Amino acid sequence: MKPRGDGGAADGTNARAAGELRGRFCARTHPGSTRNPAAAHRVGSDRRRSPEPAAHHTGGTVTSSVTRALTATVRAAAHGPHRECACPAPPTVLADRDDGTVVRHGGTVAKAHAPDADRGQLAARLAVAAHPALNGVLLAPLDVPGTELDGRAVTFWPYGTPVDPDAPEAAPWEEAGTLLARLHAVPVDTLPGPLPPMRGPHKAALALTRMRRARPHQDLAAPVERAWSTLPPWARAESSAPGPQRLCHGDLHLGQLVRHGDWLLIDVDDLGLGDPAWDLARPAAWYAAGLLTPEEWLRFIDAYRAAHGPAVPADADPWPALDVPARALTVQTAAQAIAKSTVAQRPLDEIELALVEACDRIAALPRELPAEPAK
Q: What's the rounded mean pLDDT across residues 250-263?
């Protein structure tokens, strides 16, 4: 499908309404004037800075007790408990956050999941990732028995090369769109179950809770709260999503792709049944807020449609289907930014301010555009 200057309307259906929505959403920042070429990757992966004690690290050394114990665990998984290690590089901390600690040893990665992760739901998600229907879509876990560490479930994975945040021009937007379309098309009744709900709306609600606990200045929190109040109950994790339930990733951003032979999706912690439009919502929100260029957005959405993704209509404007999830992801990301900046006692940066400003405009929009059924 060729790129279209209208951001996605093939036949003009709802194009005017969607164009007005995007214009009001963006206000001072048009999508074509991206504030920072690398912003979409940094905002989407929430890894620009993290003031909490459990902070993200890239290429870091092992410091905390959890990462030290996880290092011994991943070494045993990689080599066996009694073999000498001849790996040329030391263990590397890929992430150390409240919701997950990840350590690499050679070609093996160990992840200690969040302490409150539901073991039954995690087992179901791991079974889906290992299912043949997801070959070439999701990175499959290693055939190594899982374990526990300080009350946290530990799983093992092959290492994959992540997206380079310093090369935004090489970002795999087409691959992301194609992989999501293939994920959403997997027949749910062929998968092991029962499948849990996709956790996207739940994580949005958690972001609001986190912001409130940080007690930010009311001038910052008020636009986010107003925008949150305009969302329907399902987008606030207060009810089930309407419409057909499909297999969804739940937390799509460029940090969730790695190259392991081909590009694959990673991180099954939020995988489950839900509205597939949620998986498209973060790039849609970046585009609407001016953090993603029209060209990048079209690379993503056109690839999704070319692969027959079911979340949006094949030949009509995608924005009615994406409207509510995109608003929710904007609110979630703004709430996270406010919480982090409040804890760190620093002002919001330009990108974070753009998200808060977008929330202020979302609060003035109609509650939602009527979504057209995907064909």
A: 96
